[in-house]
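hiii so my PI (J.) wants the whole complex modelled not just the main chain, which honestly fair. so below is everything: two entries, each one labled with what it is. i double checked the lines twice but i was tired so who knows lol
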Amino acid sequence: MRNFTYYTPTKVFFGKDTHKQIGQIVEDYGFRKIMVQYGKGSVKATGLYDEVMASLAAHGIEVVECGGVQPNPTLDFVHEAIRIARETEVEMILAVGGGSVIDSCKSTAAGVPYDGDVWDFHSYKASPQAALPVGCILTLSAAGSEMSASAVITNEALCQKRGFGSPFNRCLFAVCNPELTYTVSPYQTACGIVDSMAHTLERYFIPCAPTDLTDRIAESVLHALVGAGKTLMEDPHDYEARATAMWASSVSHNGLTGCGRGDALAVHQLEHALSGEFTAVAHGAGLAVLLPAWARYCYRRDLPRFAQFARRVWDVTAQDDEQAAREGIDAMAAFFKFLGMPTTLREFGVSAAAIDRLCALTTRNGERVIESVVPLDDAAVKAIFESCC
Amino acid sequence: MRNFTYYTPTKVFFGKDTHKQIGQIVEDYGFRKIMVQYGKGSVKATGLYDEVMASLAAHGIEVVECGGVQPNPTLDFVHEAIRIARETEVEMILAVGGGSVIDSCKSTAAGVPYDGDVWDFHSYKASPQAALPVGCILTLSAAGSEMSASAVITNEALCQKRGFGSPFNRCLFAVCNPELTYTVSPYQTACGIVDSMAHTLERYFIPCAPTDLTDRIAESVLHALVGAGKTLMEDPHDYEARATAMWASSVSHNGLTGCGRGDALAVHQLEHALSGEFTAVAHGAGLAVLLPAWARYCYRRDLPRFAQFARRVWDVTAQDDEQAAREGIDAMAAFFKFLGMPTTLREFGVSAAAIDRLCALTTRNGERVIESVVPLDDAAVKAIFESCC
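here's the output for the full assembly
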């Protein structure tokens, strides 16, 4: 087990009707004037927006609206939100939405007290030394941003999608009502299951000394997500499955499944290149294509671990480690397919001609090798992208 | 899944040599003058005390010493510590020790800004509205107090051992170096394994709606603790096992294994009566006697759950739920015995004559019924105590 620091201060209000407490929660923290960010309007269509505003108004909270965050939230939007937040002197930022909205809020919050360009954080030129507090009302189980230390933004001018980690990226609070995800489409639900699984799965395969408890917790999260995914493809209104998917997505990325291992997400680096370049690609769908390809590229380098994954998560019974490992990866790929996920880049309209560009984006023109079961240099990244063309 | 609030803000510095960072950690939080509480001197014998003081001195931290906390920490000691903390105007309290020292610090910290008697909190006459910050350097994997919201103190005048929960009881930080537990005796190591298991196990059996993810995480914690316990009885210096036991004890009581279920610890109520009245009884040893007795009293009321526990934690293969449940309880009892734990109250020198008194203490003279698989009224408590005489 590696040494680690575990810091997950986000206060989570989980369960039915919890979003109706938002005015009380904000008041209890002592905030009087807040910015509210949300997406393209689905929160208005569902009535959530009205409920949130009513609760805030009932507690006398002044609101500065900032709607229109898009999936793969952009740096331009964040710049504008920072300008407004400074001008209006809001005391905190409330995200009403999924990971994109929360990440937009986190980046805004870190940018407000910073003299330079907030992109400095995303490009690792600087680290935040302060940030406005961020809270959220979660509407999508996927990114885990409600409890995570990371924020991902797309710089459209540079065609770069970049995340950075910081304790200042931890939400002060997260309001998580699984019922708010009833209206999420089957496709987006599936993307969320895959993304949630990836956050645990990628940490699970970080090469390191044994971590028995973290392994078992990780397997629990994966097991629960598979079960919830299967149920939700049948019945999107199953409360227990929605609740399991939502809590699992938070636990999967709050640091717990990395304790003693680390938090590096290798396959996410490939996917950020993919959906940064092809912005119509849903992050979870990109991961669903890349995860099996990555696993097939790597598994021979750590057969015992892939075999453990196969046996404990996918109930594979094969005695031989290589056979078990292969069956486990096949079971994972089959599950993603069952969820309705694509299995090739072609299904996104991405041709082999794009691969060199994706490799360059992933390895930053060969400047970095990504830690993984097999270290991912240019050649490895290329081989993985090619294998899922 | 029940609605829940999850709030675990303690920053954990986990791993080898982490205690040597204590001066830097305290300085980073901005504290200049702190109280240090510790126990009966073992921290001096091991050299830990000197290392801690050297690190604090190197960072210019002024220390007010307050040694001599005893196992089952007393209200009298806390009163005196509160007086000293007020007089010296310390800014935070650092516990160097196990759960007893940490709980003493928590109670002291809550008492300092409170006008009344701190026992008001333990007897539920009042709730803390403020507290000094508490940090700890953990030397024993057992109570989970380093991350928990609870603090247990013994009022010797009333012969009462009482815990209370509060967000103010959450440590600001916890320094957890598994190597510091190498010197813990096999008996105390075993007691710690049992106590750690109990925190998860008792939540696991709270009657409520399904909680698939929490179940699996709970089973992971129990599995890991059983494995670590077996290894440590053979080799007390196995780092990975010490690390697993330490991290599991924190996770077991930080709220995670109660998410969607609740945090009521039924068997702990019986044990607090036992070790409150017979102060030589080690808490974990008391639990080792009471847990199987409680399980045998209750299991028929929730056979599917006890059968799940048996199959997933103890690898019982019996098809019949009743048989599986019984085999699971037997396996748990056998494991406690393997750890060298007592199996009867008699081994503590507690005779049948004491049972009425223990019942009265547990149910507070019949004033409360304890939530459990079977609600524990006077008659139930009596039957459980009698069954392990």
